[in-house]
Amino acid sequence: MAAYLDNSATTKPCREAVEAVRAMLEENYGNPSSLHGLGIEAAKTVIKARQSIATALDCEKEEIFFTSGGTEANNLAIFGAAYANKRKGNRIVTTAIEHESVMQSMDELEKEGFEIVRLAPDKQGNISLSELAEAINEKTILVSMMYINNEVGSILPVDKIKKLVARAGAPAIIHTDCVQAFGKTEVKPKKLGADLVTITAHKIHGPKGCGALYVKKGVRILPRTFGGEQEKKLRPGTEASPLIAGFGAAVEALPDLKEQRTAIKELNSYAKSELSKIDGVVFNSGENASPYVINIYVPSFMRSQTVVQELSANYGIYVSNGSACAKGKRSHVLTAMKLSDEIIDKSIRISFSRFSTKAEIDELCAALTDIIKKHPKV
């Protein structure tokens, strides 16, 4: 029996999402921008999905803009906000543990002359509120901070940013990457005080290749692509209507988030209890981290990438050694947390979804025990 515990990388599409995609590919395949009957029917499905997502976020459907995923949404938010606001200042505040799509966007803006302040985390991946407050000044035009870290699950103080921006008298637009939060905990942009919010389908049992950016009404950002009227010209191009339909269906299929979180917390506690029985295992995720993510050090002579491959090839267990977008590179998150080289090089991420089970945890623990016994730390 396979044990899939890499849900922060992607989730298995739910039955509702698969059926919605199939129907759009085989039956309702018109171009949503076409004015004939088939196009109008496709457009209705896109509108329905947009409304489903807006309802989940407690916003208006006109504030939802579809993209090809979280990476594009993050790029659109960051470059769009920076360029729209650059006459008001040049300071941008972010953290050193953001997703690669944010990190690399910031690197590019820094090359263009923007001042990028990257806040460092503590050893559990938490960001200091006092350091955040100190970093935001009257020249800050953008604050971009993820809600939940994708590697260690730390929860960042995104709901405090708006007050700090107001206190500093900054003209800053507030962007929050909620890819690891949406569908797992409450994400309401108005409550968070966010102007821009990134979400994506494949983290909530929807299809890959479809995400969305919430843009608060009245907030101006500049487009990154040109050539069409779709998405109010902010993200032109023929809508990926099958994927959008799947996204909407996945959102509608979400269970009660409080009940789901209770179940995941129970699973997380069970996993920590069982993992702690393995001699030498160290938890990198803090006690207050999201229950959907556990990052651990595996005391073996093998590096984490080899452990991941060993678990997959010989035990049918799927975990990761960090963000899938990093393609196996050394974790910049654990590095920023100033953990030892030994821990950075030999840590894996275990991540859950609502379909994860205790049986999968049992399989993982048995396999790790076996691996450590066969390949002990030298």
Keyword list:
378 residues, alpha/beta, 12 strands
H and E string? EHHEHEHEHEHEHEEHHEEHEHHEH
Instruction: Report the count of strand segments.
Output: 12
Q: What average pLDDT do the residues reach?
A: 96
Radius of gyration: 21 Å
Give the neighbour order of strands across the main sheet.
2-8-7-6-5-3-4
The poorly predicted ranges are: none
Q: Write down the overall geometry.
A: globular
Please give the count of helices.
13
Proportion of residues in β-strands? 5-15%
Q: Helix coverage percent of residues?
A: 25-40%
Span of the ends, CA to CA = 31 Å
Question: What can be said about the biggest beta sheet?
Answer: 7 strands, mixed
Which structural category do the helix and sheet elements fall into? Answer: alpha/beta
Architecture overview:
The chain is 40% helix and 13% strand. The protein has helices at residues 15-26, 37-57, 70-85, 100-111, 129-135, 161-168, 189-192, 241-252, 257-275, 304-315, 332-336, 341-345, 358-374, and strands at residues 3-4, 64-67, 91-95, 115-119, 140-144, 173-177, 196-200, 211-215, 282-283, 293-297, 317-318, 347-351. Helix 7 links the parallel strand 6 (173-177) and strand 7 (196-200). Helix 1 (15-26) runs antiparallel to helix 8 (241-252), helix 2 (37-57) packs parallel to helix 8 (241-252) and helix 3 packs parallel to helix 4. The longest helix has 21 residues, at 37-57.
